[in-house]
Amino acid sequence: MYMVKKYLKVGLIGVGNMGRNHLRVLCTLKSVEVIFAYDVADKSTKEITENYGVRLSTNLLDDLKLIDALVIATPTNTHYDYVKLASNYVNYIFVEKPLTDSIENTLELEELKFRKNLFIQVGFIERFNPVIQELKKILDSSENVINIDFTRTNRLSKRITDVDVVVDLMIHDIDIALLLNGKVKEISAYGAVDGNMIGFASALLKHENGVFSRLTASRVTEKRIRQIAATCSDMYVDCDLTKKEVCINKQTFEQSYKYISLTSLEEKVYVSPQEALLSELMSFVEYCLWNKKKEIIPGIQSAKDAIIIANEIQKQILSLK
Fold this sequence. Notes:
- The strands form two sheets. The protein has an eight-stranded mixed β-sheet, covered by helices on one side. Strands 2-1-3-4-5 form a five-stranded parallel β-sheet, with helices on both faces.
- By secondary structure, the protein is an alpha/beta fold.
- Helices cover 35% and strands 32% of the residues.
- Strand 12 (245-257) and strand 13 (260-269) form a beta hairpin.
């Protein structure tokens, strides 16, 4: 299915906050030619595309015929329709997370993928965060992982009106929890609901490998937090995804020195400063051009696994109203 080309002709649908970041990064890639960007043609969108020398599309159907691959960075409730439309023109599609907002729509796109032989990458960007990559290496070397705590908070953005905190924020950590510990066999959750939208959610996942994942996500918190803390039998690992910091505390035999008593050692791990979005889009482009598929690339199966758990968490929280 892959093509042998020097350049990938890419289209972009959605020039909102995330779409603008995609446009910025795509325009820096030497092997990419951005053919068009499509969005509501307001002044700010036109100015942004002009700054990058990219044409603002006024006829999406005609422009889809001109590209090899498409990036979709629109509101979640539009993903399903855009993927179905794009599948008539291109075989390579990148969709921002979550793929859709329901398991039913995700299953339909899974069937479409197999029927039309599509490559669909889902934008679980945290997989490409160098902190997560270092954390995975550390946990793989641990004697026994007991529990991992995930905390993700942010105040509600005015641009997010179609999905709750579970599908907007927590789904990132659901995906990471699955990446680190595999399938889940038990889920329990509670949260706070404002109208029909969940603004605060807490969930406990028990994985088949015996590890627990405790997830907290909030859009009622002013402070922006992106943290992961892993409790292991031989170490405690503390990660700040925003600052790109990883600290390991290892237990040691108590050692006494003059005026000092050492019972543990803290080690800071060097983390590569590379931007996660750049790594994510490079992986997409490399697969499209040269069939270079990295293990961490999330596809429809990853999207399906995450949305099944997200929907169950939503169901449990809403049942408590």
